[in-house]
Design a protein that fits this description.
heterodimer; A: alpha/beta; Glutaredoxin; 2 domains; five-stranded mixed sheet; 5 helices; 40% helix; elongated; B: six-stranded antiparallel sheet; four-stranded antiparallel sheet; 10 strands
Chain lengths: 189, 659
């Protein structure tokens, strides 16, 4: 049986579904790999702070920290990683060794304890180590609202001029640090 | 011992599926009767093996064998027996096994009921199903083996996701899977037809009952899921355009299109290439839905089982199924030349319009669902696509579909006149207009459009049936006789169309719903939606593996108590979660809906809703599925398939048709 003569346009049309499926599939593959290295997380709500100056906020003094405010995030000697955490939050505790490693590398990490009890927070840092160059407490959750976070842990990278450059709505991971945070720190150093 | 039996049965099923994939296809290609004859036996053998594996897993859950990792991770011994059984498929590994079981059931069904198919076609269909099965079983055996052991076994399991401890969950996934996976059969028919190089009226007739069966299950499955979200999640809505909901809607839309285009193939031998593509696309979208749900690639409330690693495996599997079939389609589809031609204005033309609109809706939903990850990939922006987008794009496409639905069945095949069809529908238009005007006068908003559309659909379906049985034009007795003699397919189609009308009315009714969130102490009352709602008491009540806080809400109308509702919050100490149990009082016209929120200071936050016509949404889906089931009972689908025309070349035994 010889197939009837087919115009090349029709042949192209019949190949279109395959092309569409292939493009979609390759897209899925790329998204999956980006999910694994942490550069894409479908579950975060977009944070509107990126690209802006920090909102007015106060992280009140809570031992061992002396607290800080938005005014402290200007004309910095190096980029700062703002880390919202809480001693009651399990993912924060899992993230904690990574913060200690960042501190050892000389990276400035500033902590804001979100709706925590000062005593519990101090105990946690005394037992597991304090990675924070500066530390404050947000017992009322007002700072969290100002920064637009939806939970803890969440982190922001603030560059030397005080502009927020990056946000992650969840714990850091070695993959995220290697693929995203380290290049950004180099860029804004 | 039992887990090993299950493990062995699973591996055996995988081997049998591989044989089922290879031998019949070779047999059909080489016209080797003995190889082809083995196909049904292999399919049934695979079904028995998978059935054994599945039963073993259920057994492990029932006896709480925590040395099996899957059981330890998702079950616990204090759960009621019912939830220990349903928990079997409430997790990733178990649901993949259920998926394989349903796929094997499809193969078994073709083996058992496909004796009227030509032997090469049947061998190829079973072979293709075997190939799909083999892929999934390989996945089950290697990447997500539900029988993997842990040592030492824990004393207690981690328990089932509390949200899933619900009777609806027991039936929701199996029914949805019967729908999803059932479309593997039309897919296999499409691939087999491409391998054979022919699609004719007989093919259309064979493929339709399979597509129809899957469609009925998928309709019920989606409706059940929507109902579950309505009464269990306590959000007070029935459809959220959530990615996972969308991914179940996509195969439904293309599957509905397939049902209609297959009619054209059967009656007129046209739209062949298109129907084959639809059959492939529908199954591809089913698989795609599984991938989207399991990989966690989309932001969804359904993210029970997210794992990018497994996502990769499913994506590979998806590629292995879809790419070869679409490649085959590109190569072989040109052979499927249409032989029936028709004017634009004809029954065929109307069915083409149906296909265009349904597929446009599918394309819009597909785009909206996948836009967030792809926008992030291409432009690096994080966004979400929600209700406003879908409402703004789907409704304008649904409106012409609803307008055209009653007109299509009035048109004759090949070439039709629009005016006589419209003339027959004048009273349906009148009813629709009257309903629309009454609603527009009584209530604000766009609900009147929905109600008018609903009346138009139901009255149109009634006109269709009434015309066929010469209602009011012949003596009533004769009309009844005609009704009894009418092909079930025609009655089923009219019922299904009316069912959509019922659903549309429910959706329109829900736009008129009102809601009140109020903090109440026991003894307090509030007036809402014309009724007086009194919080009578708030008590703690322990359950088998939870503690419930239960409210008693009395609803009275005109001083008379019409209902006492018991919304509750159940706290699960093992899982450390809480679930809200809504309480709903329905009279099938209005739902009085209550949910309990935060409880503190001796009072409780109570959510009250007044949902007019809400039950009709799911009732309509049931009517639709019932119409589909009635069509399945049509004699024409079971017997007397038209013999294949033309002399099959090379002495193939393609024309053997038994009654």
């Amino acid at each position: 049986m010889t197939p009837p003569a087919i115009s090349s346009r029709r042949r192209l049309l019949l190949l279109a579904p395959l092309g569409l499926a292939a493009i979609t599939g390759l897209g899925f593959l790329r998204v999956l790999s980006r999910m694994q290295n942490g550069s894409y997380n479908p579950h975060t709500v977009p944070n509107l702070m990126v690209g802006r100056l920090p909102p007015p906020f106060t992280a009140s003094p809570a031992p061992p920290g002396a607290g800080f405010t938005a005014a402290d995030l200007q004309n910095l000697p190096q980029p700062v990683l703002i880390n919202f955490f809480a001693s009651w939050c399990v993912p924060c505790r899992e993230e904690h060794p990574l913060l200690m490693r960042l501190k050892a590398q000389g990276i400035a990490v500033w902590g804001i304890a979100y709706q925590d009890q000062d005593k519990a927070m101090a105990g946690f840092l005394a037992a597991d180590g304090d990675p924070y160059a500066r530390l404050g407490a947000d017992n009322t959750g007002e700072a969290a609202v100002a920064w637009g976070i939806s939970g803890v842990p969440e982190s922001f990278l603030v560059d030397r001029s005080g502009i927020i450059r990056w946000h992650i709505g969840g714990p850091l991971s070695p993959e995220v640090i290697a693929a995203t945070l380290d290049p950004l720190l180099r860029k804004y150093a | 011992m039992i887990p090993e039996l299950g493990d062995f049965a699973l591996a055996l099923a995988c081997c049998l599926a591989a044989a089922q994939a290879v031998l019949p296809l070779i047999g059909a290609e080489a016209r080797e009767r003995r190889l082809m004859a083995g196909a049904p036996g292999l399919a049934l053998g695979q079904l028995i093996a998978i059935g054994t594996a599945f039963a073993s897993l259920v057994w492990c859950n029932v006896v709480s064998d925590f040395s099996v990792r899957n059981v330890a991770a998702y079950s616990q011994s204090q759960e009621p027996l019912f939830y220990r059984i349903t928990g079997t498929w409430g997790n990733h590994d178990g649901s993949i096994l259920l998926w394989c079981l349903v796929l094997a059931l499809c193969g078994g069904a073709v083996a058992a009921f496909g004796s009227n198919l030509p032997s090469t076609l049947r061998a190829r269909v079973i072979g293709v199903l075997g190939a799909v099965s083999a892929g999934f079983l390989l996945f089950a055996v290697t990447a997500s083996n539900p029988f993997a052991r842990i040592w030492p076994p824990p004393m207690q399991g981690q328990g089932m996701n509390a949200l899933l401890q619900d009777p609806a969950l027991a039936v929701h996934p199996p029914i949805l899977y019967l729908g999803y996976v059932g479309f593997a059969v039309p897919f296999a028919f499409a691939v087999a037809a491409l391998l054979e190089g022919r699609v004719d009226a007989a093919w259309g007739r064979w493929v339709r009952p399979w597509a129809l069966t899957s469609w009925c299950f998928l309709t019920c499955g989606i409706a059940l899921g929507s109902w579950w979200a309505y009464y269990d999640l306590g959000w007070g809505g029935f459809w959220f355009w959530d990615p996972v909901e969308n991914s179940s809607l996509l195969p439904w839309l293309t599957g509905t299109a397939l049902l209609h285009s297959a009619i054209v193939v059967e009656k007129r031998e046209a739209l062949k290439t298109w129907s084959v593509l639809l059959a492939i696309a529908t199954f591809a979208l089913s698989l795609c839905g599984t991938f989207l749900t399991r990989s966690g690639i989309l932001n969804s409330v359904h993210a029970f089982a997210n794992d990018p690693e497994r996502g990769l495996f499913i994506l590979v599997l998806l590629g292995l199924v879809i790419v070869p079939s679409l490649l085959l389609f590109a190569l072989r589809a040109p052979v499927l030349a249409p032989s029936g031609f028709f004017a634009v204005l004809s029954r065929e033309g109307a069915l083409v319009l149906n296909n265009i609109l349904l597929c446009s809706i599918a394309a819009v939903v597909f785009t909206g669902t996948l836009y967030p990850p792809f926008a992030n990939l291409l432009a690096g922006i994080q966004l979400s696509v929600g209700k406003p987008f879908f409402n703004a794009t789907v409704l304008p496409l649904a409106a012409p579909l609803i307008i055209a639905m009653p007109i299509g069945p009035m048109l004759s095949w090949k070439r039709a006149e629009l005016f006589p069809a419209l003339h027959r529908l004048w009273w349906a238009a009148l009813v629709a207009a009257a309903v629309g005007i009454v609603v527009a006068l009584g209530w604000h908003g766009l609900a009147f459009l929905g109600f008018a559309g609903s009346a138009w659909l139901i009255a149109g379906a009634a006109t269709d049936l009434g015309g066929r049985i010469r209602l009011f034009r012949a003596p009533f007795g004769e009309s009844l006789r005609r009704l009894a003699a009418l092909p079930r397919g025609a009655v089923g189609a009219a019922i299904a169309h009316a069912g959509l009308g019922v659903t549309v009315a429910g959706i329109a009714g829900m736009t008129l719903a009102s809601q009140l969130v109020v903090f109440m102490h026991p003894g307090q009352s509030v007036d809402f939606a014309g009724d007086r709602w009194t919080l009578q008491s708030l008590v703690n009540r322990p359950g088998p593996d939870y503690v419930a806080r239960r409210a008693a809400l009395e609803v009275s109308r005109d001083g008379r108590v019409i209902a006492v509702l018991h919304p509750a919050v159940r706290a699960f100490p093992v899982e450390q979660t809480a679930v809200t149990d809504t309480a709903i009082r329905t009279d099938f016209v209005v739902d009085l809906y209550t949910a309990l929120g935060a409880v503190h200071d001796g009072g409780a936050e109570v959510r009250l809703r007044y949902d007019p016509l809400a039950p009709w949404i799911w009732l309509g889906a049931l009517v639709m599925a019932g119409g589909g089931a009635l069509s399945l009972a049509d004699r024409r689908l079971r017997v007397g398939a038209p013999a294949r025309r033309g002399v099959p070349q090379g002495g193939r035994d393609g024309a053997r048709v038994s009654a």
